[in-house]
Amino acid sequence: MKYIDEYRDPEGVRKYAAALKGITTRPWTLMEVCGGQTHAIVKFGIDQLLPEQINLVHGPGCPVCVTPLEIINKAVEIAARPGVIFCSFGDMLRVPGTERDLFSVKAAGGDVRIVYSPTDAVNLARKHPDREVVFFAVGFETTAPANAMAVYQAAREGLTNFSILVSHVMVPPAMEAVLSSPDNRVQGFLAAGHVCTVMGFDEYPPIAERYHVPIVVTGFEPLDILQGVYMCVKQLEEGRAEVENQYARSVRREGNPPAMEMIERVFTVIHRKWRGIGEIPDSGLGLKPEYTAYDAEQKFDVAGATAEESTECISGLILQGLKKPPDCPAFGIRCTPEKPLGATMVSSEGACAAYYRYRNRHG
Predict the structure, then answer these.
(1) Mutual orientation of helices 10-23 and 222-238 as an angle, nearest 10°?
(2) Tens of pLDDT, residues 64-73
(3) Are 310 and 293 in contact (CB under 8 A)?
(4) pTM attached to this predicted model
């Protein structure tokens, strides 16, 4: 299939692997930001093709994984209320809260529905004017335009029974949080191609310059990732720290202006807590004051809730690139997809889920 098979070409993979071995002279630690890239790396064994000096660590680019525990608890509380239709993408339903998850609410009789777009939730609000319809708006900049459009559309139509529970986070502040940590060991980044398709990459040059790290916007297929690694290592070996775009077939420097305009119309930048990491200043999106009527936290009066993370789960260290899933004593034993301690084991982009599925629970 065009645009898939050509980026999984075995001969091309071998050539890039050989080229990497030819330019690598010392150890380098790179972080792929996106959980989708993590799954591709583990599934196709890309990390096992690299020179032993190159270490790939996994970043905080799984929006399900970094959704704070208290937000999950708020989702559970709202979804369990009578008269509510709670809508979500499927990968949020098994993320554990303090006591239960959304699947448990559904099993107990709550009206929890998997949808494929926030506009599906808007349609439900039209069809059920006597019910409160809530959409779980989770994600990075990639999903923010569609969620913003849903709110904008509901406001234009005067749908008072629609709201969203917002847990939007942004990639550049997370990268800076990793780089500014005293424990940081990341020397270069593979930036998430789908986020940059929306937002472009104008935000990255100041980060590359400030921390002297190369940043390569990278796609998701094996050849994309190997080329991204090659470009990043080549910069490191040459002493450069620039932003390059490997994913040029999808990403433009300016991004998608109409999508960015919709985000700016509905959302505002706020501080946001990341599960397992803590609060990162100016790292999230929240609804602007003129759209407060569509804020589920305000509508259902759950804004002030807090929760404590599991002390056994090390997902925060994994999301910061300080540990890998097999380093966790609970991995595959007390933490499995059926009984997860953290979101990284159940998310379709979670690093723990990738290792459990593709590495037979071993590194």
Answers:
(1) 10
(2) 899 999 999 9
(3) no
(4) 0.92
